[in-house]
Amino acid sequence: MLDTFFQYFFLFGLAVGTFIRKWYGTGRRRDRITDDRTEGPVMWLLMSLWGVAQILPIFYVLTSWLDFANYHLPAWAGVAGAAIFVAGLWLLWRSHADLGRNWSPTLPLKEGHALATDGVYRHIRHPMYAAHLLWGIGQALLIQNWIAGWGGLVVFFPLTLLRVPPEERMMLEQFGEEYRSYMERTGGIIPRLWR
Predict the structure, then answer these.
(1) pLDDT interval class at 35 (50, 70, 90)
(2) CATH code assigned at 75
(3) Exposed/middle/buried for 86, CB within 10 Å: 0-12, 13-18, 19+?
């Protein structure tokens, strides 16, 4: 019974996360792109797999196809997963709100692109990736299935390892010493606790 609650809690959060991305993606097509770092096929494959990893819990909850890969955790793990997942959703929303029109699911620079260093960006350079990390951990605790639960984390790590370095290079090329200084005082995906 509690497992079912956690599963539907995740699906509700999935809908909220999708709404956040859609809401902040509205209007970005009207912006003039000055530098477009179109990503290669490997990156598009990984981004597609991330989408699949988010759809798998829907199939898991609505069908019995993946039941062979179930595992069971104590109730406190689901409560912890819910808290971690909510933190991830909050960080996803806050990072989109703080980035504003500079956000894009790909790697373009837009006309008038500004370096975001306020809000959550004051402490961390890649809060959206951090949000997805929290999301993936919460997913594994809420959806207690080796495939539907862990799919997000399995895809998150190679996606992040391949995407963050080109993003950092692009920002260094665009903002130079300002971005280098920003890198020295902030964490990448995990906030820097020391300076």
Answers:
(1) low
(2) 1.20.120.1630
(3) middle
